[in-house]
Amino acid sequence: MSNSLHLEGSPAENRVVVAMSGGVDSSVVAALLKSQGYDVVGITLQLYDHGEAVGRRGTCCAGRDIHDARRVAETIGIPHYVLDYERRFSEAVIGAFADSYLSGETPVPCVACNQKIKFRDLLETAKDLGAACLATGHYVRSRPTEGGFALYRAHDQERDQSYFLFNTTPEQLSFLRFPLGDLPKDETRRLAREYGLPVADKTDSQDICFVPTGRYTDVIERLRPGAAEPGDIVHVDGSVLGRHRGIINYTIGQRRGLGIAASEPLYVVRLDSDSREVVVGPREWLLARRITLRDVNWLGGEPLETLIEGRDILARVRSSGVVQPAS
Question: Which residue among 7, 22, 54, 79 has the highest number of C-beta atoms inside a 10 angstrom radius?
């Protein structure tokens, strides 16, 4: 291997497609790889009808972001393409997001987008363009191993995004590169200014990209009419405390905005989509000694069952949570 991306040959001999969202992270990736001599091609995905979001700050992949990605590409002198994946995104991500909320879950659409759009469809497009790899602005690390590449948390633990990439397959991981995995965010900002990128001071995306108003319930109600059907707010002791505005407006652990009077702080402890009940109880009802996992994706070379025997297991139950012992 003779280059920073663990590819055969010199940088000039390797085409790299960069997934450019229009934000500072992916823009720095494109500029950094260009400065290292790679044959860089930028691609931005148009994932939804962004009419409402063109001028909104704090989103990802909105109309303004496509414009920003194009400006960055012009600044550093690389070709840039916008691909319309709106229909695919609507079916694979937005529809599943709405259905998940209707079943009482709190989905993370970025995981589905990575799994079904960016790391599948976009990855195949990169291969069609003759790229040796697809680079993204995620804060995560991958390292070559005997059987391919392994996934590791980012150097900057506060920026670590490995949580959102848990469903990446070994085949995808071998084609993906994450140049920012060893950098703190401050260094990324510094590089953006050093390269003279027009997005150097752009704020980080915070909202779900297809929820430009910040109200995800609006999207769900539009896609699934009747989704906000009211029901009872029920205490864990079985008593009815009031009425709610539809279970899509609530999430496990929520305390504020319940609209009920009680002698003690109450939290949402369960959402029952069949009975349309929001079940509330004291804080201790949120505690659990056991969690059942689904959609487990094991990236190790050996069978999972043979490795966990007698080993300490660590877990993180939310993207911003602390890694804790779980065995």
Answer: 22
The 3-state DSSP class for residue 288 equals coil
Domain segments of the chain as ranges: 11-194, 228-286
Q: Domain 228-286: give its CATH code.
A: 2.30.30.280
3-class SS string, 3-68: CCCCCCCCHHHCEEEEECCCCHHHHHHHHHHHHCCCEEEEEEEECCCCHHHCCCCCCCCCHHHHHH
**Catalytic status, residue 60:** no
For the segment 102-107, the average pLDDT, to the nearest whole number, is: 81
pLDDT in tens, 126-158: 999 999 999 999 999 998 877 778 889 999 988
Which H or E element spans position 315?
strand 314-315
CA angle 300, 303, 305 (to 5 degrees): 115
- Is 142 strand, coil or helix? strand
Question: Catalytic: which of 60, 61, 110, 113?
Answer: 113
